[in-house]
Design goal:
This protein has 54 residues and is mostly helical. The protein has one domain. Helices cover 74% and strands 0% of the residues. It is rod-shaped and about 80 Å long.
């Protein structure tokens, strides 16, 4: 008969490892995003541009 307690603890350990990997990947992605230069693009309607040029 399988030792279900041991199997459960093995599964829990693997799930914890997977969560750690996902959290680390998320943190790396967030750090990469923060370090990138962001370019601001202003979107204007054509009417707004004409009004500002007057």
């Amino acid at each position: 008969m399988p030792d279900y307690k041991q199997l459960y603890f093995q599964l829990a350990a693997k799930v914890t490892d997977a969560i750690d990997i996902l959290v680390e990947a998320q943190q790396q992605g967030e750090n990469n995003y923060i370090q990138e230069e962001t370019h601001v693009i202003l979107l204007k309607k054509p009417e707004q541009e004409k009004d500002q040029n007057k």
